[in-house]
Amino acid sequence: QVQLVESGGGLVQAGGSLRLSCAASGRTFSSYNMGWFRQAPGKEREFVAGITWGGGKLSYADSVKGRFTISRDNAKNTVYLQMNSLKPEDTAVYYCAADRDYSGNINRNQLAYDYWGQGTQVTVSS
Q1: Which of 22, 16, 73, 14 minimizes the C-alpha distance to 48?
Q2: What is the distance between the alpha carbons of residues 55 and 92, in angstroms, rounded to a whole number?
Q3: Which of 1, 8, 11, 73 has the greatest count of CB atoms below 10 A from its CB?
Q4: Minimal CA–CA distance to 87: which of 63, 70, 61, 69?
Q5: Contact between 60 and 47 (Cβ < 8 Å)
Q6: Is residue 77 very low, low, confident or very high in pLDDT (cuts 50, 70, 90)?
């Protein structure tokens, strides 16, 4: 069992930055691939970024590539999402999720993820 708690959301102007954190409980955090997803009003939840359990492989949605960076600190049971050059279209509720996948691949399908946080709101004003 893994419990996830996101933090770091807020209101920021376009072009600004935010860093989201996702703190995990449980001793097995380091065995999970981690993903960040987001859901804007009226839209489906979408993949944003993912990182393998050891941090050796990263994956990003095209819409955030070059602007967002995912990282993790297994000693702190925490995964991060650094978001730079934010745009109004980045406005959404951001969720972190844990996926126990030993294939070495990062799943972009939310159905593959076993545990989810409650989400944190990110609002980017123009």
Answers
A1: 22
A2: 25
A3: 8
A4: 63
A5: no
A6: very high
Distance CA 36, CA 16 (A): 19
CA pair distance 52, 58, nearest whole angstrom: 7
Whether 59 and 108 have beta carbons less than 8 Å apart is answered as yes
Tokens (6 digits) for 43? 């839209």
* Whole-Å CA distances, 57 to 18, 49, 86, 89, 98: 22, 11, 24, 26, 15
Tokens 């600190």 belong to: 73
Q: How is residue 100 written in tokens?
A: 């126990």
Per-residue pLDDT reduced to its tens digit, 22-76: 999 987 888 999 999 999 999 999 999 999 999 899 999 999 999 999 999 999 9
Residues 49/64, Cβ–Cβ less than 8 Å: yes
